[in-house]
Every structure is written in structure tokens, then in C-alpha cells.
Design brief:
This protein has 340 residues and is of the alpha+beta class. The chain has 8 helices and 17 strands. The strands form 4 sheets. It has a 9-stranded antiparallel β-sheet. A hairpin with a 2-residue loop joins strand 3 and strand 4. It is globular. The protein starts with a strand and ends with a strand.
Length: 340
């Protein structure tokens, strides 16, 4: 799972699905909501100064947003709109589904097909989607690839290929999108200082100490499953609203016949990527964009990712790569890296 954590300050305890908590610091205005969502724990910190809504009501509204996203976009919830559509049912998409589909279409076009939510069958046959198949034959890859692509999906989310149903997978942007939706709700209440971590992060303003939020970047070594336990660096914000997302191959992969298969699939050729980029941390104006473009960088590899990040306005990045067995880093000119 892609994830970064507020540097050196957040340690999440394992929580049951039903365990949700909201609390405010004694004598202060900062509150924290926490719970379980999208296969992991979440944490939302915000300054409640001047906000009249009770913490319990805010928690309830956050839960409602998370439930709506789960029943709309989750591929693991068999009753969600996404799962039903993928199963071939005729589904009338709600406004959230329509919105994320249009956002995904924009990124598909921007990346020349390298970010493609209609490539779900490819993730399935490689064992990184919602099935357990692994290491398909070249013939299988070619046959599935021919049916994938957002260019083959109409505005009604149905496949334009006769006899083929569209199958979508929003994993590349769903967590960033979720963080943005929670931030959007907090903005509606008048909140200006916040850190929303729903697996991916949106932060804005300052923390309880009055300084911009700092986000730790994990070292991308194989099997590192403990976010925040081993940091490679720390990014510090400047108070502006920013999405901060890391994508990497070090937590999702498998090995077969001595070969490692990463979970990043290039939907343009149907195969897991083979390059030396280990992780990409992207900072953008929102978490949806950071999430999508971090995945894109992991598809295109180190050199193309460098050029892309430097060419984009309002986008910064931090790339960690393997250089002959040595882990090295590259940061864009505007990436604010804290040296401890």
C-alpha cells in the first residue's frame, strides 16, 4: 500500500473496523479523528478554532464520506457500484463515480495512456487486481491488452467493444481522491489548518506547533511494511494546500522462478515495469493529482520522471532509485527537503 506519514510524530495502532475515535487536545484547538478505512488506518488532524460544529458531528460526516466512497469505488466491496459494473450489471453511476471517471479520463489523455483505469483486466491477470492469477503467458497478455484502454470505454462507463464489458480499477487515484474529499468537507466548515491521511495525504496550513506540516518519506527497501519506521527524508510544506503521495514497488510484488514482478503495470504494453526507480514522491495542489502522477512516474521510470516533474508547473518530486545496488535520491528544484 502506498503510504507516507507525518514525520516522526504519528504511530498508528491497529484498529478494528468498528473502532472510530475523535478527540481534541486538552487546552488546545487541534483535534484528531482516526479509524479504519480502505484496508488501513486513517488519521485526520485539524484546527477547530472558530468551528461551531461538534467533533462528534464532524466524525459522523467523515464516516459518511468514507462509506460513500467504499460503496461507490471499492473493488473489494462486492456490492459497490464499481464491483457491480465490473461484474456486468447495468449500473446508473452516481455523481462521485462520474466525477472520478472524468478525472481518470483527463489523466489517461495527459499521460498518453500510461495511467489507465480501464486496464483492470491486466492487473487481474498479473495478480494485483481483484483476482489471484499470476505470471500469465504472453498470449494471455496480448489478448487482454487488446480489450483494455479508456479509449474503448464510453461516457456511460460501458465498453465500446462488442461483446466485451468494461472493467475499471481506480486504485491509482482512489486514496488521493478520498483525502481531497475529506479536505473539501473540512474546508466547507471553515478549517484552514489540516492534515488528512487516508493512505495518501493532503495537508494545509500549520500544525499545532504553528509550523507547516512535515511528511516523512519511507526508504523503499523490499518488504518495508511499517510506514514511518525507516525514513529516507522529510518534506516540509510552506502552508499552501498540498497533496503529498508516494508510489513504489517495495510493498507490492511477488517472485516466481527467481524473477521479481512489481505491482506497477504499464498499460501500454501489458507488463510489469522493469526499471531502477524504487519510489516516487509527488507534491501537487491536491492529493488526487499527486496520487495519479506518482503512479505515472513509476510507470515511465527515472529519467522520464525527472523530465516530466521539472516540466510541470506547481509540481515537485522526490525520486529514490537503485544505482548498481546503491540507493540514491533525486529531488526537483522546488522540493522542500528537511535535513535532520
Amino acid at each position: 500500500m502506498k503510504r507516507i506519514v507525518e514525520a516522526l510524530t504519528v504511530v498508528f495502532a491497529a484498529m478494528a473496523l468498528s473502532l472510530l475515535a475523535g478527540s481534541c487536545s486538552s487546552g488546545g484547538d487541534y483535534c484528531q479523528l482516526s479509524g479504519y478505512a480502505q484496508g488501513g488506518t486513517y488519521s485526520i488532524k485539524f484546527d477547530k478554532k472558530g468551528i461551531k460544529v461538534k467533533i462528534e458531528e464532524i466524525q459522523s460526516s467523515v464516516d459518511s464520506i468514507l462509506t460513500l466512497i467504499d460503496t461507490t469505488l471499492s473493488g473489494y466491496n462486492k456490492g459497490s457500484q464499481l464491483s457491480r459494473l465490473n461484474a456486468g450489471e447495468l449500473v446508473e453511476p452516481n455523481e462521485m463515480f462520474k466525477e472520478i471517471f472524468l478525472i481518470s479520463k483527463k489523466f489517461y489523455e495527459k499521460t498518453g495512456g500510461a495511467l489507465d483505469v480501464a486496464s483492470a483486466p491486466l492487473f487481474d491477470i498479473w495478480g494485483f487486481g481483484f483476482t489471484s492469477d499470476k505470471a500469465p503467458s504472453p498470449e494471455k497478455v496480448d489478448s487482454v491488452l487488446a480489450l483494455c484502454g479508456m479509449d474503448k470505454v464510453g461516457p456511460d462507463m460501458m465498453s465500446t467493444v462488442p461483446g466485451v464489458r468494461a472493467k475499471l480499477n481506480f486504485n491509482a487515484i482512489a486514496q488521493g481522491y478520498t483525502s481531497d474529499k475529506i479536505a473539501e468537507y473540512l474546508h466547507s466548515l471553515g478549517v484552514k489548518n489540516m492534515l488528512v491521511d487516508i493512505g495518501e495525504i493532503y495537508c494545509e496550513g500549520v500544525n499545532q506547533r504553528g509550523i507547516p506540516w512535515s511528511i516523512g518519506i519511507d526508504r523503499p527497501f523490499d518488504g518495508n511494511m511499517s510506514p514511518g519506521a525507516d525514513l529516507d527524508g522529510i518534506w516540509r510544506g510552506d502552508g499552501r494546500g498540498r497533496g503529498v503521495v508516494t508510489s513504489g514497488n517495495y510493498r507490492k510484488y511477488y517472485e516466481k522462478d527467481g524473477k521479481k514482478y512489481s505491482h506497477t503495470i504499464d498499460p501500454r504494453n501489458g507488463y510489469p515495469v522493469q526499471h531502477n526507480l524504487l519510489s516516487a514522491t509527488l507534491v501537487a495542489a491536491d492529493a488526487t493529482t499527486a496520487d495519479a502522477l506518482a503512479t505515472y512516474c513509476m510507470v515511465i521510470g527515472l529519467e522520464e520522471a525527472k523530465a516530466f516533474i521539472e516540466s510541470e508547473e506547481d509540481l515537485e518530486g522526490y525520486l529514490i532509485y537503485d544505482d548498481g545496488g546503491v540507493m540514491r535520491e533525486w529531488a526537483s528544484s522546488g522540493f522542500k527537503l528537511v535535513v535532520e
